[in-house]
Design goal:
Number of strands: 6
Helix content: 25-40%
CATH superfamily of the largest domain: Winged helix-like DNA-binding domain superfamily/Winged helix DNA-binding domain
CATH topology of the largest domain: Arc Repressor Mutant, subunit A
Oligomer: single chain
Number of domains: 2
Largest sheet: 4 strands, mixed
Strand order of the largest sheet: 3-2-1-6
Length: 157
């Protein structure tokens, strides 16, 4: 089967990017091959590389991995270990959709739990951040990903 995805300009449409993500997953599972010519320009990252650029901005989440703290517009958020790990994992993998089982394996460290456990933690994380701030997008029938409008910066200090 052959697909042609036009990659014109400096960035890809969200649909083209999602298609390439799906194709990559198929190839990783050994279910196909991909030849891309020319190499597409990767989209701009969602997570901001310099936390100080937006420190204290309303609606911005600043996540410090080392101290395991999260600040929302300068206000500390109290997250459980799993909520923090889930947020970091999604922020490290922007625009990538993960199934519940993938999240259980990556964040919880095991897949032998009820997949709906992920739903509960996503709901609690959304509630703590607030409904007006987009954070996690549900991809119906598939799983979850970091929202395109999420403003999250990750720092090691």
């Amino acid at each position: 089967m052959t697909f042609t995805v036009p990659l014109v300009g400096e960035s890809m449409s969200p649909q083209a990017f999602r298609l390439l993500e799906v194709v990559r997953d198929l190839v990783e599972r050994g279910e196909g091959t991909v030849t891309i010519t020319p190499t597409p320009v990767p989209p701009a990252p969602l997570a901001l590389p310099m936390a100080m650029e937006v420190a204290g901005a309303p609606g911005h989440l600043h996540v410090s991995r080392d101290s395991r703290t999260v600040r929302l517009g300068g206000t500390p958020l109290e997250l459980t270990r799993l909520e923090f790990d889930l947020l970091v994992f999604l922020a490290e993998n922007p625009r990538r959709v993960f199934t519940r089982l993938q999240l259980l394996g990556a964040v919880w460290g095991y897949e032998h739990a009820v997949a709906r456990t992920v739903d509960v933690h996503v709901r609690r994380l959304r509630a703590k951040v607030g409904e007006k701030i987009p954070l996690i997008t549900t991809v119906y029938g598939v799983g979850y990903r970091l929202s395109d409008d999420a403003h999250v910066s990750l720092a090691d200090a």
